[in-house]
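sanity check this record:
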Amino acid sequence: MLSRRRAGLAVRVTAICLVVAGVVAVVAGLVSARLVVSTATAITRQTVSDQADVVAGQLSDSKVLGNRRMLDILRGQGISVVQLRPNGNLLSTNPDAVRAARAAGIDRATPDHPLHATVEVDGNSLVVEARAVAGANTFALVREAAVAKGAGRSLIGNIVFALGVGLLVGAGAGILLARRLSRPLRRTADVAAGMSHGRRDLRAPVEGPAEVAEVAEAVNTLADALGRSESRQRDFLLSVSHELRTPLTAVKGFAESLADGVVTGAEVPDAGRVIGAEANRLDRLVSDLLDLARLGADDFRLDLTDVDLAVLAGAAAEVWRVRCEAAGVRFRLELPMTGPWVRTDPRRLRQVIDGLAENALRMTPAGRPVVLSLSTAPGAAVLQVRDGGPGLAAEDYAIAFDRGALHSRYAGSRPVGIGIGLALVHGLVTRMGGAIEAGPAPEGGAAFTVTLPTPANPPYAAS
């Protein structure tokens, strides 16, 4: 199919060039032929007129038809002589010339007003030049205009030949143009085909017309983007594998210790708690991965209802206050006097708060704050989670929600997750019709701001 498309481009470009060249050739040929015939006819008329003036100047009282020598000369030039007798009769050896002279009105010629006419006789165009000479009969010289056409046939033939050559040149130009267009496109298509089979080292040559070169540049840009994306995905999968292997190793080790009787007596409950904690950690990781995979599906379910954000934030704060105190981190909750209402999925929104809080707690050293803040803005509710950790480099806030981006930047230098928590939070907020952004926090670390639209008429609960 690809070969047919490439051949089709070359054929179509060549066909267009041929059509254009053919139309130009036909139009130019018609115009040229008309001009040639008109010019030749005008030359013939002028020639016959000059001959008539010469004949009129040489005549005296003699009859024009009696001058055999003059008749032979004129006949050799394809000119017939018609003489008007005083009785109105026309004399000539050529009946068609007689009819042409009569149709042209030979009797209207006077010494002061010669007659110039072109008439049609039996489908032939005849040039008539009549003169009235004092002391002699009026005469007319008649010559077929077809003689002029015949004189121009060789010129027309040359023009047609030249136009045919132009048509061949147009076809050759079309073929060259088609090859010029199809060659870089074919190379670009080959690169795209190689990319579809997993090759990322191929690049299309940037050549040809500007539009074709832009296609090659776009394919090369796509190849670079795919290479970066796949590299990031590989790093993400490696980090996920490592993150899953750690709790699995702990669960497997304690399970084998229990099975082999290495852990006995009072150590059994501690081993069970470790296994349970690591199992819960595995469950959270798997759940986050599944949610992240489902976010792009059309059937991702949201149970929308009217939610008092102050109540939701307060419930989340009770859990995270305890977890922060256990880690030696100061927790602070900031709420407005009356909580804003939003229409959203409370379970998914709580998942967003928990994900941001867990990220903040992981990054915040002991003695530094973690803040859960709720405020209002015109037509929106603003939820913030800020921390007193090391924060991010200014250029990294823009990629904070890309899967695995922060892990690849900061792994080994600070405690970081595998990169699915913030990506999941971003996807959830977007699906709920909100927006989220990252930036520096006044506490010294990072601030993650979630903005959700508020209804025009919030359903305030009766107290």
Residues 155 and 259 are 110 Å apart (CA to CA).
